[in-house]
């Protein structure tokens, strides 16, 4: 078996003379989390909580004492904190994970520094300038330390920058063109995060990060295509539709190849939403709404049944 679960152990116990000691050892070794697992979990949890509370404390400090602080004090405190975090991460003899978390905290403080600078001197810059500068000035840290959480922040900043740029400057961009651009960008990022570690023999990115980027790309395609159905078709809609079709086909193939239920669930769910929007575009009468409800319930039921069958097949 690829993996032993509680049901397997129960079946063996009911049909054999397996001793209680043997069952206990198997449960402790295969099912229950041991001391090492709990220590690792607590270490990461406390480290994440410490960084989060520290960053929150700094933000609340500025929020409460904003009016009383001199502008040089405001900027100086943040710059000193960033410098301190970088120095500790580079020169301190500590674990690589702690160094990466410190860099993540420094990257967040870079955004705080830009926000404070803009408010102190009233630069009048557009919001996208703020996120663009934030993104550019942490790029070196992102590439050098190659930390999944830092990459997640970087990807989020990229998406926010493009969205704000489209709202504030690129007035000629349609909403569908923006969704097409965001979907294409996140799809390329996802492809890079999957292939680059394999090509250069690097440590692969965590599964949660890969799935987060994939979910972001699918969300943009789903929203874009669903909203474009209700409007007059334009080239951006068909470009998004074609790219999404290719992406979905490759995603299903990749999910079957890697035995990942994530891709086999999120992609069909996106298709169900798009098809529901297409049916709603045909008619908004009560009969069509009833038919759409039946379609959603039936399709999701079949999807769950399919996923359960694959899960049993891959677990055997």
Question: What keywords describe this structure?
Answer:
2 domains; about 0% strand; single chain; mainly alpha; 13 helices; globular; about 325 residues
Question: Explain this structure to me?
Answer:
- The protein has 316 residues and is an all-alpha fold.
- It folds into 2 domains: 41-167, no CATH class; 173-316.
- The chain is 83% helix and 0% strand.
- It is built from 13 helices and no strands.
- The protein has helices at residues 6-14, 20-31, 35-65, 71-91, 96-121, 127-137, 139-145, 148-168, 175-199, 207-229, 235-258, 261-282, 286-315.
- α5 runs antiparallel to α6 and α6 runs antiparallel to α8 (148-168).
- It is globular and about 65 Å long.
- 20% of the residues are buried.
- InterPro entries: DUF2157 (IPR018677).
- This is DUF2157 domain-containing protein.
- The chain crosses the membrane at residues 44-66, 72-92, 101-121, 176-196, 208-230, 236-254, 261-280, 286-308.
- Keywords: Membrane, Transmembrane, Transmembrane helix.
- It comes from Flagellimonas marina.
- Overall 3D geometry? globular
Number of helices: 13
Mean pLDDT: 83
Strand residue percentage: under 5%
Percent helix among the residues?
over 70%
**Whole-number total of structural domains:** 2
Give the radius of gyration: 25 Å
Helix-strand category: mainly alpha
Summarize the helix and strand pattern as letters: HHHHHHHHHHHHH
Main beta sheet = none
Report the end-to-end length measured between terminal Cα atoms. 6 Å
Number of strands: 0
Unreliable stretches covering 5 or more consecutive residues: none
Organism: Flagellimonas marina
Transmembrane segments: 44-66, 72-92, 101-121, 176-196, 208-230, 236-254, 261-280, 286-308
InterPro entries: DUF2157 (IPR018677)
Keywords: Membrane, Transmembrane, Transmembrane helix
């Amino acid at each position: 078996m690829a993996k032993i679960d509680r049901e397997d152990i129960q079946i063996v116990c009911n049909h054999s003379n397996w001793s209680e000691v043997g069952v206990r050892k198997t449960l402790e070794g295969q099912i229950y989390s041991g001391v090492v697992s709990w220590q690792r979990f607590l270490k990461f949890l406390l480290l994440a909580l410490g960084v989060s509370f520290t960053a929150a404390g700094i933000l609340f400090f500025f929020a409460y004492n904003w009016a009383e602080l001199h502008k040089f004090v405001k900027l100086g405190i943040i710059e000193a904190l960033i410098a301190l975090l970088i120095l500790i991460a580079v020169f301190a003899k500590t674990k690589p994970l702690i160094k990466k978390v410190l860099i993540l905290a420094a990257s967040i403080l870079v955004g705080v520094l830009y926000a404070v600078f803009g408010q102190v001197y009233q630069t009048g810059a557009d919001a996208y300038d703020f996120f663009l500068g934030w993104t550019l000035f942490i790029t070196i840290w992102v590439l050098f330390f190659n930390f999944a959480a830092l990459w997640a922040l970087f990807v989020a900043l990229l998406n926010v920058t493009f969205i704000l740029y489209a709202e504030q400057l690129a007035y000629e961009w349609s909403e569908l063109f923006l969704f097409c651009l965001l979907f294409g960008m996140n799809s390329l990022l996802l492809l890079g995060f999957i292939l680059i570690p394999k090509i250069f023999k690097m440590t692969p990115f965590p599964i949660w990060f890969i799935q987060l980027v994939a979910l972001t790309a699918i969300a943009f395609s789903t929203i874009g295509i669903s909203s474009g159905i209700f409007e007059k078709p334009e080239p951006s809609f068909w470009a998004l539709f074609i790219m999404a079709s290719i992406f979905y086909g490759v995603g299903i193939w990749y999910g079957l190849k890697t035995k990942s239920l994530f891709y086999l669930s999120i992609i069909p769910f996106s298709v169900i939403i798009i098809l529901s929007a297409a049916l709603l575009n045909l008619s908004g009468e009560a009969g069509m709404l009833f038919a759409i409800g039946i379609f959603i319930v039936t399709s999701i039921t079949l999807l769950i049944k399919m996923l359960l069958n694959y899960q049993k097949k891959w677990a055997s």
